[in-house]
Amino acid sequence: MLFIRKTLAVSLILAVLIVLGVLGALLLGRLMPETRLQQLIMSVSAVVFSLALILAVFSFYVNHGFGYQGDIVRRVKTDEKLVAITFDDGPTQEYTPKILDVLKAYDVQASFFLVGSHVKKYPEIAKRVHSEGHDIGNHTYTHINVPTSPAAAMSSQLLTTNIEIMKITGESPIYARPPRGMYDARFRRLAELMGMQVVLWSLSSQDWRESVTPARMHSQILKRVQPGDIILLHDGGNLLKAEGASRQRTVDVLPGLIEGLREKGYRIAPLSRLLRYPHVDHIDDLEEQKPY
Ligand SMILES: [Zn+2]
């Protein structure tokens, strides 16, 4: 009940803010400007302001949600210095093998949210991800935009991806991550129906931004990292398309990032281990397993 009331209250306040913003800007547009050009500028500003506000609200929902969303994992609550590294949008022919090489060299198990059509295209690379002990999750078949997809398309995207992943691993994945982190109630229900937990992230490397250098990614992640964080990186993808961007910066940052995390006392675990953590009574149970 508290969640519903909180969600309603936040939505209501934001709706009032948007209406006030638009009305205020329109009123100013009527009263103050003397020329048609000034009126036009005011009206355009009002529209831009409203759009910005709507985007801000949407972005807040995507990144934080309104209130408690128990079915969505962004990070794990723990005092132990344990984090997960996740890679989205692969597999790709060029970058996934390079990333796997680095992970192997450091004996790190990570988690990969694979795009179904890429699994079909590069089954050998997907097989390598699985055989080297990394977790595999569902990132839709063609990297769709979830909120604008019809329900039937969304469910077939998730199902066909699960089928491609099952051909590789023999198991249906238990994690799903919506492209760009944009989910809605339908996605959450479908994921649950298919036995998948929705896993987002708590710490983005920002590696999809062309302007962010490996050095900056490294310093930002190490400055912000907290126990239980789920770190987001990419081994494929593109800003607007499903693939094609260079992920060399991600490959470049990875060794130093692993070293830096370990220097700060962090261990790196795949999601299957990090998410199990809250249910483990003694950390010693984890210590006995393979080093992270
Ligand atoms: Zn993605």
According to DSSP, the number of beta strands is: 9
CATH topology of the largest domain: TIM Barrel
Quick one: biggest sheet?
6 strands, parallel
Order of helices and strands: HHEEHEHHEHEHEEHEHEHH
Calculate Rg over CA atoms: 22 Å
CATH architecture designation of the largest domain: Alpha-Beta Barrel
Number of helices: 11
Q: What is the helical fraction, as a range of percent?
A: 40-55%
Structural class: alpha/beta
Can you identify the CATH class of the largest domain?
Alpha Beta
Unreliable spans:
279-292
% residues in beta strands:
5-15%
- The CATH superfamily of the largest domain is known as Glycoside hydrolase/deacetylase
Shape: globular
Comma- or semicolon-separated keywords:
single chain, 292 residues, alpha/beta, three-stranded parallel beta sheet, binds zinc ion
Can you offer a commentary on this structure?
- The chain is α/β, with parallel strands linked by helices and 292 residues long.
- Helix content is 50%, strand content 11%.
- The protein has two domains: 2-63; 72-287, TIM Barrel, CATH 3.20.20.
- It is globular and about 70 Å long.
- Helix 6 runs parallel beside helix 7 (185-193).
- Helix 3 links the parallel strand 2 and strand 3.
- The chain contains eleven helices and nine strands.
- It has helices at residues 2-31, 36-63, 95-105, 116-121, 123-131, 151-169, 185-193, 214-224, 248-263, 271-274, 284-287; strands at 72-73, 82-88, 111-114, 135-138, 175-176, 197-199, 203-204, 230-234, 267-268.
- It binds zinc ion (ZN).
